[in-house]
Specification:
Shape of chain A: globular
Membrane topology (chain A): Multi-pass membrane protein
Number of helices of chain A: 6
Transmembrane segments (chain A): 20-41, 53-76, 88-107, 128-149
Number of helices of chain B: 6
Radius of gyration of chain A: 17 Å
Subcellular location (chain A): Cell inner membrane
Oligomer: heterodimer
Family (chain A): Belongs to the TsuA/YedE (TC 9.B.102) family.
Radius of gyration of chain B: 17 Å
Number of strands of chain A: 0
InterPro entries (chain A): Sulf_transp_TsuA/YedE
Order of helices and strands of chain B: HHHHHH
Number of strands of chain B: 0
Amino acid sequence: MDWMVSLQGLVGGVLIGLSAVWLMGTMGRIAGISGIVGNLITQRPKGDSAWRVTFVLGLISGPLLIMALGGGLGNVANTTGAVIGEPAGGVSLMLLAGLLVGLGTGLGSGCTSGHGVCGISRLSTRSIVATVMFLITAIVTVYVVRHVIGGGA
Amino acid sequence: MKMVMGYIAGLLFGLGLAVSGMTDPARVIGFLDISGAWDPTLMFVLGGAVVTSFIGYRLVFKRAGPLFGERFQLPTKQDVDAKLLGGAALFGIGWGLSGYCPGPAIASVGGLTIPLAAMLIAMVVGWFTARTLTR
């Protein structure tokens, strides 16, 4: 049932949007994960760290709550009842990917949430440009890995 | 109180990622693979999130400030520079390789695997490197 997969995507997206609105309405902050967590770890801002820590705890407990409910609300491809999917590669690929994601979101001041959700909602030119850019390089990367190097599949 | 508000925001975000299937790298890569068996799920996620926050932000910004803070802290930079473009380009490559952006990577800690742990450690190294480069 493909429409159910899409519907879950839409509902999940609305929840993410509500999270962004909640964080702005209560704290006046952008719900950008790389900003919230990256600044917490690299700067430990005084008097501005505790809510970042609880945000991360909440972020981790979301999927755990869905798992505790039996996993029926999970949306992992081809695996009914699963909530968290398997990594796409081994340690060396993930080390490279992690380094690029950290470096890129650090230099580019944001990721899919900060630029893609919050920034586009504010109609920020920088965020729209950044989102188009990372979508293009991600699509090209997947094309090269799957269809040029991987030879189809 | 800020800690409670932060937790609720994180929880909503984590629930959203789990319900939408964004905690599954295969769904993300399936969306990015436009010449394969395309998976449109991420489009619905981004669409639902953007429309919700577009409307919600407009309601929130009618107020003078946030409930538990002095003011709305919005980005002030306006210029599209090489750092923004280069950073976004690098991030996209890492996202495409792994299917993880920072949110799903951290939210998936409940199902931690060795490759995911490696990714998270490397991501932190990347954040420190970016900070050193821009100082």
